[in-house]
Amino acid sequence: LGAKSIVTDSTAGYHMTHEPVTNPPDTPNFLDNSFVRSATSQWIDLKDPATNQQVTRVPESTDEELRQAVDSAERAFPAWKATSLLHKQQIMFKLAALIRESMDRLAASITLEQGKTFADAKGDVLRGLQVVETACGITTQIPGEVVEVSKDMETRSYREPLGVVAAICPFNFPAMIPLWSLPIATITGNTIVLKPSERTPGASMIIAELCRKAGFPDGVVNIIHGGKRAVNFIIDNPAIKAISFVGSNQAGEYIYERGSAKGKRVQANLGAKNHAVILPDADKNLALNSIAGAAFGAAGQRCMALSALVTLGRTDEWLPALVDRAKKLQINGGFEPEADLGPLVSPESLKRVEDLIASAEAEGATILLDGRGQRPAKYPNGNFVGPTIITNVKSHMKCYTEEIFGPVLVCLSADNLDQAIKLINDNPYGNGAAVFTRSGGAAAKFRKGLEAGQLGINVPIPVPLPMFSFTGNKKSIAGTGSLNFYGKDGLRFYTQWKTVTSLWKSEDIGTTQSLVNMPK
Ligand code: NAD
User: Fold this and answer.
1) Does position 2 have pLDDT exceeding 50, yes or no?
2) Hey, whose CA ends up nearest to atom 30 of ligand 1?
């Protein structure tokens, strides 16, 4: 690496305002434990979603830089694989402590680049940190199995790393999603090339700096940047054995198919349409507060956002109370302390969301609460849209068939629980669903009848903690999803079994004994 291109730090400090910075630094690559300025001529402008002022430029890493990242990871692999488990564990403990110490700095980067509120951004970091902390338990997670299969013969299995692995991340959880991969991939002995979203790379760059501080040797963690070209490089490079992808169906289905065809192990978490059902016996306050938070929080840019509501019986009469709650939510720049939801990530996202609301109107649905055109006075140029509630939605309408990924709740109705379950199961996505009820029987029926992979019972966003796995299914994953992100499946994804059968004849002890007794 050319010494001139090495940058000492990713981001020296941080500030917690949306004030524009003059001459903001470009985002570097992270290669072989160094921040390296890109030699590219193609840069992607990254703008603060609250103001649309420039935050940084993100490189389309050059072919040479992409190759350097993989070479560095390949070089690091043998020694890292051979590093003692306890040493790797110590590094992971250190990383966990550093992330906790750097929580505000990481969250500030997320708010600035992604737009979510600072409190929400801290949650993003926390959920990633929990995966790091769980990875510290590797000493009891990784052991293989041993069976004495016959006299003097035993079979023993070992979990071995795959080699160089890659992670391709989306914009919406800039810390949590890179941390779904990095800790588990590395603690199991792999080296990693990570490509953050070109829209939100800042948190990954800080994490890289913390990895270096924690003691990861050169080349174990590398970060490259870009869009489809960088992704194609990852898919096609033969040294990369596995790809962890989280993002849209369009990108993920392509990566899954092309990556699998190249013989790679691929896990891919995709889009969603998550439903909530309110039964008439539900705790009204709990249900409405939960739904308002889960539909509109993070401006709806969560893969587990509750974006479709099914009212049952007379619970449609509760909708005006939901509108009241939604109206009270403050839309503002994410650093504003009173902000409940920030802007959408980009002007393109804003246009897509507004177009989908307009399509609902055109198809005959009712816009009960319209968030279009809502802009906080202080941020007239941001990508803001307020909470929006659409009623009289039918399952053929575009606002229902497409993932909106904005603070928009579409409302449908069902006559009974069976009908509600059928309606949800007819939807091709299967990330999550929630029911609000006081009846154990109804909850059990919901649990047994629903196809979606992550269910909440009086819990709006049932994302499993890292001792479990993220278990979306149907169109919310590519392939069969038998190797989900994190938890036991995550460990399986990043390791392969080696099974050794050995025979040591106990009669041979005689020879050994005579050697021991040999005169000196
Ligand atoms: P995206 O698919 O646009 O981008 C994700 C990654 O893929 C980025 O790194 C991007 O550079 C790359 N990419 C984009 N287009 C590509 C293409 N055509 N070919 C190859 N690579 C491409 O997704 P996004 O907008 O960043 O994230 C939002 C989506 O992610 C939503 O659909 C959301 O539901 C989904 N998501 C799913 C989960 C989950 O666990 N199921 C979690 C978070 C987000």
Assistant:
1) no
2) 247
Catalytic: which of 169, 303, 399, 411?
303
Which atom of ligand 1 is the closest one to the Cα of 472? Answer: 41
What's the rounded Cα separation, in Å, for the pair 286 and 8?
Answer: 49
- Distance from the alpha carbon of residue 197 to the mean position of ligand 1, in angstroms: 8
**Would you state the structure tokens that stand for residue 362, as one six-digit string?**
């055109």
CB-based contacts of 449-454 (< 8 A; 24+ apart in sequence): 449/418, 449/421, 449/425, 450/421, 450/424, 450/425, 451/424, 451/425, 452/274, 452/275, 452/424, 453/481, 454/304
Which residue carries 């072919």 as its tokens? Answer: 63
Report how far residue 223's alpha carbon sits from residue 201's, in angstroms, rounded to the nearest whole number.
9
Query: Is ipTM over 0.90?
Result: yes
C-alpha to C-alpha distance for 341 and 162, rounded to whole angstroms: 41
User: Which DSSP string do the residues of 96-163 spell out, in sequence order?
Assistant: HHHHHHTHHHHHHHHHHHH---HHHHHHHHHHHHHHHHHHTTHHHHS---EEEEETTEEEEEEEEE-S
Please, is 386 exposed, middle or buried when counting C-beta atoms within 10 Å of its C-beta (0-12, 13-18, 19+)? buried
pLDDT single digits (tens) 348-400? 999 999 999 999 999 999 999 999 999 999 999 999 999 999 999 999 999 99
Cα 249 to middle of ligand 1, angstroms:
7
> For 157-204, how does the pLDDT look when each residue is reduced to its tens digit (9 = 90+)?
999 999 999 999 999 999 999 999 999 999 999 999 999 999 999 999
Q: What is the pTM of this model?
A: 0.96
State the helix-helix crossing angle for 202-214 and 178-187, rounded to 10 degrees: 20
How many residues would you count in the chain? 520
Nearest CA to ligand 1 atom 23: 247
- Cβ density class 440-464: b for 16+ within 10 Å, e for less: eebbebbeeebebbbbbeeebbbbe
State how far the Cα of 385 lies from the Cα of 342, in Å rounded to an integer: 9
Active site residue 303: yes
Check: CB of residue 407 under 8 Å from CB of residue 302.
no
Task: Report CA(169)–ligand 1 centroid distance (Å).
Answer: 7
In degrees and rounded to multiples of 5, residue 196 shows phi and psi of -70, 170
pLDDT digit string, tens, across residues 115-125 = 999 999 999 99
Instruction: Of 224, 238, 316, 330, give the one whose Cα is nearest residue 277.
Output: 316
Residues with CB under 6 A from ligand 1: 168-173, 195, 197-198, 227-228, 231, 246-248, 250-251, 254-255, 269-272, 303, 403, 405, 431, 470, 472, 476
